[in-house]
Amino acid sequence: VSSSQGSGPLQxxxxxxxxxxxxSFLANHIGRFLASRGWIFLQGKHDRMRQNHAALSVLRSxxxxxxxxxxxxxxxxxxxxxxxxxRVATNIRDALGPDGVEAFSxxxxxxxxxxxxxxxxxxxxxxxxxxxxxxxxxxxxxEYLLCVFVDAVLSAGRPILVLYDDIQWAGVGGxxxxxxxxxxIADQPSLRGNLLFVECCVKTxxxxxxxxxxxxxxxxxxxxxxxxxxxxxxxxxxxxxxxALHLPPRVTAPLSEIIHIQTMGxxxxxxxxxxxxxxxxxxxxxxxERQWSWDMDIVPLQRISSSVAGLIKSKLLNLxxxxxxxxxxxxxxxxxxxxxxxxxxxxxxxVTNISSALDRAVEEGILEKA
Length: 370
Description:
single chain; alpha/beta; two-stranded antiparallel ribbon; 14 helices; 51% helix
């Protein structure tokens, strides 16, 4: 994308794989890598329970992340960052105008963080509930404003990576507008070179589901790359286990064989299976020999859940009660919550040490800290 800015097609990447195969990890790793090199990394995650509700909620979350990123640049950025922030603010102000900024801020108040609008008196998000023709007109106006906003941002010149995770739960309303937006960007050579769009899709859940990459693949100025994240082969898994245990591959081969049979090479299952072996003392560190050891007669007896839900359930049941209480509290905010918000709740209903409990949940792989 960086090498073909202004001349190449809009780049869209679809990452497919089974749950636990590392799709999101791969995409986030690349996102952080590019962010360290001047890109802006934005991400949204679709929710299975809300796929037919609030169709643009994920897009709203993504745009709000952009506002936070710009605000951070203004406070902590270098000269290039400050220059970019000025260009973004000027472009948005010129494209939307005072009335457009005011209307936009009713849906996404974060725009006031980067564009000073004297006529704006909006102090929070206003969810306008309408029915019939008014609702359709409101939706059309919002989509128009979003298109104008995106044009203004991309024309500022800094490349942006947008990651949409669990795209199979987007629902019809969730992907139709994003599909139209991507085609709109693809029609403009000066804009499409500043965007890399990545979607992650669970293989087993996406059967028969139209995802965004499929919908835009027929466009002449869109290049779709499909990446299949598969399971680890036996030799590859043995290399991993050999590296993790600091033992030669020939020594770990029998253990890797059993682990591969139990997990089918799914890396999430492998990690959890190794942890369960250590916790049950089937895998121990021998101090006298200064190396890891295991009993090949009893390791095959260790069982592992065949689903991610089973793994998570088992992990939750073994957590300290205070950590569980903090997770319950955090879940009230949806799929993500700001750490500072959680800090304000310390002591509520007897829940204490919220910060350390959140850190423990991150260590256990239940939460991810962005």
